[in-house]
Amino acid sequence: MPYPVSSGYTQYSGNFIPELWSGKLQVKFYKSTVLGDITNNDWEGEIKGQGDKVKIRTIPTITIRDYTKGMNLTSEVPTSTPVELLIDSGKYFSVVVDDVDATQADVKLMDMFTNDASEQMKIAIDSMVLDGVKAGAATANKGATAGAISGNLNLGTTATPRGCSKTTVLDLILDMGQALDEQNVPETGRWMVIPAWMAAIIKGSELRQAYLTGDSVTPLRNGKIGMIDRFTVYVSNNLPKTGGNDHVMAGTNDAISFASQITNVETLRAQSTFGNIMRGLNVFGYKVVKPEALINAVVVKA
In which region does residue 45 sit, left (phi positive, over 0), alpha (psi from -120 to 50) or beta (all else)? Predict the structure, then answer.
């Protein structure tokens, strides 16, 4: 909108006074991604150059039997069932920049487009994997009767989610930790991914006190939740939802395997116009390989 003038006064805007476009682009905010922090890439190198699947060998479980003196011993041949990690998913982008636009523009259009595409690719894959693995948690690690030993841990269901408030959020986290404990999951390397509203609740709970978290500075001062009950806590807006309910996930990096076989970015001339096409392909696969090391809680803000 041009600068206002009094009635009858000549307005030069749009005639002698040109519009100017800033050479500085406005900052763009992206959803934070967590896939690199909560999955393992142990088998990615084996299929980087070729192949569309990798068979992961598992360690067999040896049977322990009672013994009495002089008895005939029973021997077994240990067997294991391999787990297949398939490279069966893909995401791509393809943008075209006309030669005229590239010449006349005062910003590097292709760089801007491809940088944004890279961020959008990470977000799309992050959301897809988080949604795809939620059902892979062990039966004892989800639902209203979770707990491999206790069977009385309420981690919520889509029909009856667990309510979460300032006074109950710590109980939920402790129950998720207990579910992993009952599965004999190691304490080291545990993570938890929570929605933004749950992070705000934690910061408003008793855990806002620095002496309770064990940190030198309260989360209200530095904005970081850090570690709670052996969990490194991450905040993500990519967590799946069912209706108005959020899925909160926890586990260790052993739970989910992720592999990206091909990341192909290329530039070529457009055939139907004068311009360059930049396109990229990311082919990947993921699988819950240790269901007992993955927690899926269904929660709602109480």
Answer: alpha
**254 closest CA partner among 99, 111, 59:** 59
Task: Measure the N-to-C terminal CA separation of the chain; round to a whole number of Å.
Answer: 46
- Please give the structure tokens belonging to residue 233: 């806590």
Q: Which tokens is 2 given? A: 């041009």
Q: Which helix (H) or strand (E) holds 299?
A: strand 294-301
CB atoms within 10 A of CB 76: 9
Residue 91: count of CB within 10 angstroms of its CB: 16
H helices present in the chain, as ranges: 35-38, 99-104, 109-133, 169-182, 196-204, 210-213, 219-222
Residues in the chain: 302
- Spell out the residues 6+ positions from residue 6 whose beta carbon is closer than 8 angstroms to its own: none
DSSP state of 203: H
The pair of structure tokens assigned to 273 is 């116009």
pTM value?
A: 0.79
Per-residue pLDDT of the chain (302 residues; tens, 9 = 90+): 666 766 765 565 566 556 555 555 555 566 788 988 999 887 776 665 556 777 778 788 888 899 999 899 999 888 888 888 888 888 998 888 888 877 777 668 788 888 888 889 889 999 999 999 999 999 999 999 999 999 999 999 999 999 999 999 999 999 999 999 999 999 999 999 999 999 999 988 876 554 445 555 555 444 457 788 899 999 999 999 999 899 999 999 999 998 887 667 888 898 888 888 888 888 888 999 999 999 999 999 98
Site of tokens 């979460």:
164
Burial degree of 228 (CB within 10 A; 0-12, 13-18, 19+): buried
Q: Could you tell me if 129 and 218 are in contact, meaning their C-beta atoms sit under 8 angstroms apart?
A: no
| Interatomic CA distance for residues 279 and 247, integer angstroms | 33
